[in-house]
Amino acid sequence: MRNNLRNVWDINASQDNAIEIWLKTQGIPTSGKNLLILWSRFSGKGGDIHIEHDTSYWGIKQIVHRVADMYDAIIITGDKGYIKERAKKYDETAEEINRYYGPQKVFNITEFWKGNSSELKAWGGNTRLGQFKLYDYFQRHFQNVKHLGFRSGNLEMMAMLGYTVRYMEEKGSESGGRMTIWFNRGDGETEKGGKATGYERLLLGEPPTRSGKFIQYQIQEINREMRERKEPFQQKINELENAHEKADSPAMKNLNKEMKKIDDEGDARKKKYAGSDLSPYRKDQQPPRPILKEEKSNYSEGFNTDDMDIILRYLQPLDWVERETSYEQYIPQRTKIYDRLLNMETL
């Protein structure tokens, strides 16, 4: 399958010279040992689904600070953000690290495909399929390349092309189950015996964004309420089953009908949180109804310590020996004081 994809998409070494020229214009190393590619996703807040799987600028900062010394280069790619001007936060993170190294180490190339330079167009970097040639170049010119981001079509493509990929997802994700059929069961194959694509998951305790944490909590509360409402019906079903009641008896059918009714009501309520209803931008003609700042104020931005440990276990090279750096490696979560921000906005 991978060879077929490469042939169909014309992904090969034919544009290496042109790619190398473009990389040099960006100051990006053209070869090395360890390369990390961090994928930025903001399609949820941009009007698509699953806001909880969008990237946290602060979370990227945490990852970069923690592992920068382990890599020859770190590339931040993908979406700039639903507010494009905020992409400068990636530049700020890169500058925080780069000032301590000779050659630059961290590079923000988010939405590079929208560029208009002749060097970019020379290898098709301004086209959808042409973009993939860049990551294939990296795969062949660095000894160890790792990709990390939240679940997205681009990351899935990276795995299908044979690269080392992990996508992050929080426990209890309503849409997470459908992806498990593609996971490696330990022998290179899926549970159904197909060849595993390499699209594997890092299961985190919570999303890194405040919006994601808010959504996770709301869904957990709906699920808890559903379980409590269904419990007496389930107990009655268990009693009837122990009494050898037939599954198609009127009593059993009515109980299962009530259970399904509760499930349907819960699913309808959860749909609000999984779709684009809470997005600050809408692609349809409906007015946006984003999550209020007050509703997010109880949640911290960034990854918690346990989740950072999970991420580090994937990112840390096998031969790495920890050493001190001149910059802060451990960046904690942070809390925004919205009252102060709101007061500043009214000045």
From TrEMBL:
Residues 261-300 are annotated as: Disordered. It comes from the Bacteria. Residues 280-298 have a biased composition (Basic and acidic residues). This is Uncharacterized protein.
